[in-house]
Amino acid sequence: MFHIIFSSDENYIKYTAVLINSIIKNTNINLSFKDICKNSGFDAPKDSSFSSYKAINFDDLSSEQKQEGYIFHILSDNISSQTQNKLNSLQNELNQIYPCQILTHVIDDKEFSNFPISGAAHSNFLPYYRLKLKNYLNPSVDRCLYLDSDMLCLCDLRELFAIDLKDNILAAINDPGSKKRKIKYKQNSNIITHKFTNDYFNSGFLLINTKAYIENKIEQKCQSLAQNATYIKAADQDLLNATIPANKLLKLPISYNFSSISFCFAICKDEQNHRLNCSRAEFMQSYKKPKIIHYGEKPWRFLKSYTDSQNRNINDIWWEYAASTPEFKDELMAMRNDINEYKIFATLGFEILKALKSIFGYFVIKNLIDKPLDNLNLNSEIPDDIFGLCCILGEMIIHAKRHKKSPLSVILKAYKMKTTFTKYNTKNFL
User: Fold this and answer.
1) Residue range(s) defining the domain that contains residue 415
2) Cβ proximity of 351 and 364 under 8 Å
3) Model's pTM, two decimal places?
4) Strand segments (E) across 236-390
């Protein structure tokens, strides 16, 4: 059985359901797990940023490990009886395609009262729930996969469970942002600064060797670090990166956690230090065939964002799966009709692009900051190839409104973003 874990509150469970649906729909029922084990493995080229890994020996597995079927674990702070009934029905319908079981685990936030509020944990402690594996996994489970709910699966996930993790604690994917990050914590009355390296990984995807995770006391180390942290930016992600040694980390290709903004632009390590820890050639291989998309611009807020290598809007792909998700599709499709916020972002961003070409750009942007959003005339003619960029730029105006930023600060940030996009726009490398 293949154990997959999600953290999701009541409102997010419908999005988790779409991810579960995509996992089942992309499981090749014509292949057995034994077949996949025979064809798995990855020999990284010389000087690659990724790790070489081999497949496990199927014949050495226990009967439980050989058994087909997913067990989905949803960790939540609360699940209503109505939602639980929907999940039961979802399980029953998907079970007709491929064996699966959906288990829910309600966890008390009080268990994390000493953990810092930061990053993804800015409004609740859900991101920390994944740290307590022993609370919801049977001791016989030797590995599990954690996925963020704002992802979409486009591959047969069993190929991940066929990887021989050896004594590595987990397999993960490099984070797309800058690696100039740090965490500060108290130790014997001193403040220690731990600076992260280019091995810094994104915690939205974690293929965990549960035995090694427990033996190395990762949960306890994270808890101790959390309680003594004086500066932390990315919640559980920073904690895991600070407590898992680089020599116990298996680095997988970024196709397994392909950030949506990377469809717009990406800066690779052979182009600039402290950026995405892979070469441009390695990046483009994943770009052409992503296995898991990680959405920054949530499809339930943005009907349109970036286009992929085949010029498909990636948010449309998510909605295709949403439209076929049992029990939740009606609710999701009803929501779709009311999504307009992304049009505001895109319109504001398009106005910024025009302003950057004008000698009166400062005053145009000042007007955008001062002007009420309900007086904005939405633009429906923004080209697809810059639509995502416009959304990013538009967010700068929203941020400036909220935090009373000056037009000059917006101009400088927008010019830098436009320059970066022009130089590193993904399609420039096709």
Assistant:
1) 340-429
2) yes
3) 0.95
4) 249-251, 258-259, 292-294
